[in-house]
Automatic annotation (TrEMBL):
Family assignment from sequence similarity: Belongs to the TRAFAC class translation factor GTPase superfamily. Classic translation factor GTPase family. LepA subfamily. Belongs to the GTP-binding elongation factor family. LepA subfamily.
Keywords annotated in UniProt: GTP-binding, Hydrolase, Membrane, Mitochondrion, Mitochondrion inner membrane, Nucleotide-binding, Protein biosynthesis
Spans traversing the lipid bilayer: none
Subcellular localization, as worded in the UniProt entry: Mitochondrion inner membrane
Catalyzed reactions: GTP + H2O = GDP + phosphate + H(+)
PANTHER family the UniProt entry points to: TRANSLATION FACTOR GUF1, MITOCHONDRIAL, TRANSLATION FACTOR GUF1-RELATED
UniProt xrefs under NCBIfam families: lepA, small_GTP
Name by which UniProt lists this protein: GTP-binding protein lepa
Binding, GTP: 13-20, 75-79, 129-132
Domain Tr-type G: 4-182
């Protein structure tokens, strides 16, 4: 194969618009995989689900006009949290299929992936999917695509990834519209590392895009990032599983195995070159930054070593998670993990619970704040490290919080509701426009605004969905840091602070949040033999208070003369919960109380 016969592309789409289905169809139409009677290839579909849909990279052969082409599909994750991965995958592509659901129309992530692809200079092929649906409105959606992206309606392909209609047009368009990669066979080897997997048997497998030169088995290479040297033990293409080949040519995408022992050696975005032939590393590649942090603790503190092992194992396959040991007087030993976003956190948590096979306590998610001191700036993601008082402290100049630029696309009739939602979450620079001719039924509107990241990490997405009857789509991008009036709120039980419960909140919300939390605590903390004040405080100010009245009766008092077995059972239960008691000050708290409080945040 020469470069001229290679096409590198990805499929970009809002979630559920049919990316995986189309990927499967393309692999099937080129004979790369075989479908079962239901039209599904379980293996590939399962693989797609693995690891938060990390996306398969599939190489396929396609013949047109007696010419054989090698088409390389580099799949990209569809979710906002992984936009960094989207752009890294795009480095290996020259074109992208922009897939839009013909009944749903353009959604928030259609926009963000479109912009990412255009910034990278990719040739975009617009594709309307699901035209088999009775609710499909191709003309209307094409008008939207014209108004939002400036795409000519005549350039839009009509397909159904489900029935297979139009798939051959897609293959033809890939060959005809996407330019071949440029690269010199004779040039010095330059390979871009864009993904890596961990194989139990072969160790680290890296996915690379050859920019220049030819890579062969046995070649000795160097990482620009670490300067470590390796020897290629195996290389090949993904067809769709790994198929060894003798070499990888410029413009080709494939996998390599070299003697990398640890996943951490495979730096995403790294450039590899031949030993003795240095090249300029690929520019402008920022690694992902963790933006959402949470503490993770075992429910049973004895299980910490097991939890630790599970966390270490999972981070082998998902290295965008940052990890740090942490301990808390209430929750014991644990970890503070950093994630790309809240969805990323949910996915990881799910995987952790599966792997670890037990319940874990995940503390309220926080974002990295910047505390600007006289002489330095500290990034703080743990409330414990946040200054107790900002305004009166001469050391702290100001605090800043990360903000995002948010885009919401929603049917016009929900626009007001969405604006209210944004304002409730401290939105600024709110703006909107209509996508299409006004007056039309169920016209779409696009709302943009800036929001503090902290406002969207908890339940913003759930509220957005429920208050728009599921119709709103949402995406956001990093918009830097902004000065903010933030305070640290602590909770006191019997005048003793409970560190695991500390929060960083905006001043305007301190009253309502303080009151809400003391009420919740009052509900879940069992009464003690003495009166317990439950307080929320900011600095020295008490914001809210509830009092837990004293408990006097003996637990077994009412059981005297009653059934002996019942009494024994009661004592047994009591013993059971004693085991999980945590002592805060003089107050005994069942671990479950923390679990209740922290999991409902
Ligand atoms: P992804 O999230 O973009 O990967 O979307 P999927 O490929 O998982 O598809 C989302 C849903 O849409 C699935 O239930 C698919 O079966 C369905 N789907 C995908 N393409 C079509 C299509 O052309 N027609 C119809 N009717 N359904 C489709
Ligand atoms: Mg999918």
């Amino acid at each position: 194969f020469s470069c001229d016969n290679i096409r590198n592309f990805s499929i970009i789409a809002h979630i559920d618009h049919g990316k995986s289905t189309l990927a499967d169809r393309l692999l099937e139409a080129t004979g790369t995989i075989k479908m079962d009677s239901k039209g599904l290839n379980r293996q590939v579909l399962d693989k797609l689900k693995v690891e938060r849909e990390r996306g398969i990279t599939g190489n396929m052969f396609y013949q047109q006009n007696n010419l054989r082409y090698l088409l390389n599909l580099i799949d990209t994750p569809g979710h906002v949290d992984f936009s960094w991965e989207v752009s890294r995958s795009m480095v290996a592509c020259q074109g992208a299929l922009l897939l839009v659901d013909a009944s749903q129309g353009v959604q928030a992530q259609s926009l963000s992936v479109f912009h990412a692809a255009r910034e990278r200079g990719l040739k975009i092929i617009p594709v309307l999917n699901k035209i088999d649906l009775p609710t499909a409105q191709p003309d209307r959606v094409k008008a939207q695509m014209h108004s939002i992206f400036g795409i000519e309606p005549a350039d839009v392909l009509h397909i159904s990834a489900k029935t297979g209609e139009g798939i051959s047009d897609v293959l033809r368009a890939i060959v005809e519209r996407i330019p071949p990669p440029s690269g010199e066979t004779t040039g010095k080897l330059k390979a871009f590392l864009f993904d890596s997997l961990y194989d139990r048997y072969r160790g680290v497998i890296s996915l690379v895009s050859i920019q220049d030169g030819v890579l062969c088995k046995g070649d000795r290479i160097v990482s620009c990032h670490t300067r470590k040297k390796y020897e290629i033990t195996e290389l090949g293409i993904m067809h769709p599983e790994e198929v060894p080949t003798a070499q990888l040519l410029p413009g080709q995408v494939g996998y390599i195995a070299c003697n990398m022992k640890q996943s951490s050696e495979a730096h995403i975005g790294d450039t590899l070159h031949r030993v003795g032939y240095a090249v300029e590393p690929m520019p402008g590649f920022q690694p992902a930054k963790a933006m959402v942090f949470a503490g993770i603790y075992p429910v049973e503190s004895n299980d910490f070593p097991k939890l630790e092992e599970s966390i270490k194992r999972l981070t082998l396959t998902d290295r965008s998670v940052t990890i740090q040991r942490e301990s808390s007087s209430a929750l014991g030993q644990g970890y503070r993990l950093g994630f790309l976003g809240s969805l990323h956190m949910d996915v990881f948590r799910q995987r952790l619970e599966d792997e670890y096979e037990a319940n874990i306590i995940v503390t309220a998610p926080t974002v990295p704040y910047k505390v600007v001191y006289r002489d330095r700036t500290a990034v703080v993601s743990n409330p414990t490290d946040f200054p107790d008082i900002v305004e009166t402290s001469s050391q702290v100049r100001e605090v800043q919080e990360p903000i995002v630029k948010a885009t919401i696309i929603v049917p016009e009739e929900y626009l007001g509701e969405m604006m209210d939602l944004c304002f409730e979450h401290r939105a600024e620079d709110v703006d909107h426009r209509y996508l299409g001719t006004s007056g039309e039924a169920s016209n779409r509107a696009m709302l943009t605004c800036t929001l503090p990241l902290s406002e969207i990490v908890a339940d913003f997405f759930d509220k957005l969905k429920s208050r728009s009857s599921g119709f709103a789509s949402f995406d956001y991008e990093d918009a830097g840091y902004k000065k903010s009036n933030l305070v640290k709120m602590i909770f006191l039980l019997n005048t003793k602070p409970v560190d695991a419960l500390a929060l960083i909140v905006h001043r305007s919300a301190e009253q309502s949040i303080g009151r809400m939390w003391v009420k919740k605590l009052h509900k879940v903390i069992p009464r003690q033999l003495f009166e317990v004040p439950i307080q929320a405080a900011v600095g020295k100010r008490i914001i809210a208070r509830e009092t837990l009245s004293a408990l006097r009766a003996d637990v077994t008092a009412g059981l005297y003369g009653g059934h002996y077995e019942r009494k024994m059972k009661h004592l047994e239960n009591q013993k059971e919960s004693k085991r999980k008691m945590k002592r805060v000050g003089r107050v005994d708290l069942p671990q479950e109380a923390f679990f209740d409080i922290l999991s409902t945040r």
